[in-house]
Amino acid sequence: MRSSVIFVYLLLSILCVYCSQPKRIVDQMYISFDHARYCVRRLNGTHEIGCQSSASGNSGRMYMIDNDEEFNSYLMNTKLIDSSGSFIIVLNVNLFNTYYVDKLITSLSSKLNGLLLYLKSTPSRPEYFSHDDQCPNHRYSYYLNQTEIINWNSKGTGLFFRSFPFPIMLIDEEDDYKQLIKFYRQFNYSQSSSPTCGLELKSFQNAAHSSKTCIRRNDISHSLIDLEETFCDPVGGLNIYSKLPQSFIIIPKKRQPKSVILILTTTDSFQMFLKIKGTTGGAQQPATSLITFLALAHLIGQEQNEFKQQDKEIIFVTLDGDALDYSASFKFMFDMINGSFPIGNQNEEPIKVEHIHSIIEFQSLSLTDKLSLYTYPSSLINQTFIDTLVHNNPMIIPMAVDSSLPPASSQIFLRQTSSLSFPAYILTSTNQNQLSNHYYHSFFDDPSTLSINISSLEYNSTTEFSQWIKNIVESFGQTLIESFVGIKKNVTIKQEIINNLVYCILKNINCPLIHNVTNQSTGNSFDSSNETSLPFSINTYPVAATPTFPFVQNILSYFLRDRIYDTYNLNETTCKQYSNNDSFCSYTYVGGYAPSIMSEQSFDGYCVRSYIRSVSSMSPAFTIDNYDLSQTTYPAWTESRWTTISLRLFVIPTRKHEIITLVIGILLLSVSFIVCFILRYYTNISLLQPSSS
């Protein structure tokens, strides 16, 4: 009997060890899709937008719809719809628009527990895919009080700005799609009496209701030390600006009116579907504009001896946060109006509205044969400047005087000054009041839209796109010299420089260029982003760990450096000593970027003297004391925080299978009780018997 007890004990021990490894069982129960894109919750002063699941995730029976015929067939199949308590609809990405989404919400009501979109393959992507509004940023545009607005993005669905009570995810990798369709065909194509596939979407968001509510919850949480938690973060990154280091004005010297030219572009975009370590899109907007902007900065730096002869300061400005209601532009103008531009040194004469001569902006550029030049207002524009620019580059087409402006940061600069102070010149790609970008604010806005095969793109590849950029940049550089220096000069930029910018921004920011223009420690910080394109997304404050800002700062400061230092053979120690005696400029010792160095001599290293500034681009709504976030004076966007994002597939058993499982479970429970009773009974006997010794 004692040997039987020992055998049963060993058997139970083995079972306990096996059952103590639940992870293995879970892995067998679920199939995870780790590369899925997901929709998150964002909030403004009064509303919430986006998607989320319940805290435990949303699950339901999987039903796949590939085309319009299948869509209508599903909605007419009331027997199928009534057979399940909840559905996760797996929808072809080509059907993701307001018509199909609203139809599903209306027909399924509470049974619609989530949406999963799928892309079969890259060639099957939709012709248009933009979920921004048809008139982007119309809530804060220059034309706020006009009843008739232009739908610059007429194919935009506006779904990004809607609030959904269920999660929405997207799989865009072919392997994931093949795995999904494999299990769907294996189970869901069988008879109704067979098991079916189910999906679980988990994307619970911590924030809710509005930015005002969420920020208040943050403050309450932060006042309780033991329960400190942040539910959402204000949208905003960094506004960065730089200029030639010889051009700053030191108090008591006064800056002359109409003496500052601002050249603008943006560094942010948004997508409805985010992805960890995935492409963010933004190839046409803002990447193309940013490449043009940086190349022009290099050309101005290259010709700095010419620009020393005139009395205008040219300041290059990148704005981060304008994709959502021009938050960064509001912050820039707020700082300027309140005497906080530029920051960094109190002895530098502030730049105010009356000092602005004009604004030149690169916005939403696409690889097109014609580019549109919008100007406003007609009473202040310099027609000679326009004529010179068109003469230097015939593919630039001036729009009619006082035409409505497309979505651009300049709208806020004009709005905040009642368009009475300076003109704006906006270069963009439009066709009959339509943006040329079919994927405006979408992850589909990738290098293929610029006729670039990203897999074969090399560091110094000359492409049709990079030649197109060169044409634009040289015409602008030549026009600026003719208009503000007063001389005619054919200026050129090396094609290699633009090729390198294209490669770094669109394919791999951990490229030789960034290592050439930074010191070793800064350059090494880009190693973690190897083989990653420059991310263009919504940033939040405190500034997220995005490489976008250090990349732009270092490239811009190097391109606009004081070129006289290229002729000095300085070591790192001497370079640092210079910085101790100059509070206006920064000094960095770098290896040097050969295509940019025009000195006949080459050295082991170079001391870079540059003027670079950065400031938070967070909306003034979050910096003004006691500002009511429900007001609409300034945008008040926040982004929710979240903890877990997951997409898992599982098999839903039939009713018969569930009953059998229940019965077996009850039987096993009964057997375990009997075994335990027997063990306890014989153990008591063994303990009560006297020892044989």
From TrEMBL:
It comes from the Eukaryota. Residues 1-19 form the signal peptide. This is Nicastrin. InterPro entries: Ncstrn_small, Nicastrin. It comes from Rotaria sordida. The keyword Iron-sulfur does not apply. Keywords: Glycoprotein, Membrane, Notch signaling pathway, Signal, Transmembrane, Transmembrane helix. Belongs to the nicastrin family. Residues 39-207 form the Nicastrin small lobe domain. The chain crosses the membrane at residues 659-682. It is found in: Membrane. GO terms for biological process: Notch receptor processing; Notch signaling pathway; protein processing. It is a single-pass type I membrane protein.
